[in-house]
Amino acid sequence: MTHTLLDTVVFDLGGVLIDWNPRYLYRKIFADADEMEHFLTHICTPDWNEEQDAGRPLQAATDELAARHPEWESQIRAFYGRWEEMLGGVFDDSVEALRQLKDQKQHRLYALTNWSAETFPIALQRYDFLHWFDGVVMSGEEKSRKPFPEFYQIMIDRYSLNPRTSLFIDDNLRNIKAAREIGFQTIHLESPRQIMPLLREWKMLGE
After folding, report:
1. In the 8-state DSSP scheme, what is residue 149?
2. What is the pTM assigned to this prediction?
């Protein structure tokens, strides 16, 4: 373990602090799990959702996809029409880690998230801890997203971050690799239950 002196922690949100999964909604819509997986793999795909995370208007994206797949129109329109039902709650260990870091007042705390500017206000209203950060850089507002280097650079420039003294936490290995290329220290969070022991390894939290 590299014992770099760290002054900043950067959190991803979905998959790290917030349990977002379209299956929470689509299990209510599809009786057949295989049909649901086909829909989420080939129709409302992660790549398609990321286009909206990067600023594409939800209505335009929905209308265009429904026109291409009219046989799935009602299911497509549910994606953003019932988006709030994809929120499954929070990961308690991660929220507690964020709380402890905030209470220590020893590190700057930021969020770097791929999130639509149209749906983010729902999360802001629901989750108080989103207001604990010193700053949030959201893809939908910046019209860029992880893993593109320019998106990380927006945060670096705006908040005068030094990547080498900043710890970046994300559940997506693609995003972790991009952060490492820029020089960030990283935690690839494969399970939220790992976050407390991993932060202790980095000497960020006490026992």
Report:
1. H
2. 0.94
**DSSP β-bridge partners for residue 169:** 11, 187
- 6 within 8 A of 108, measured Cβ to Cβ: no
Whichever domain contains 166, its CATH number is 3.40.50.1000
101 and 187 Cβ atoms separated by less than 8 Å: no
Query: Does residue 59 sit in the same domain as residue 98?
Result: no
> How do 135-138 and 108-113 pair as beta strands?
parallel
Q: Could you tell me where the DSSP H helices lie in the chain?
A: 23-29, 33-42, 46-53, 58-68, 73-81, 92-104, 120-126, 139-142, 149-159, 173-182, 195-201
- Same domain flag for 99 and 154: yes
Percent of the chain with pLDDT over 70: 98
Judgement on whether residues 127 and 58 belong to the same structural domain of the protein: no
Burial status of residue 109 (CB atoms within 10 A of its CB: 0-12, 13-18, 19 or more): middle
Q: Which two tokens stand for residue 153?
A: 């650079």
Percent of the chain's residues with pLDDT above 90: 96
- Identify the pLDDT of residue 207: 67
**78 and 170 both lie in a single domain:** no
11 has which bridge partners? 111, 169
Instruction: Say if strands 185-188 and 87-90 run parallel, antiparallel, or are unpaired.
Output: unpaired
Torsion, Cα of 179, 153, 49, 66 (10° steps): -150
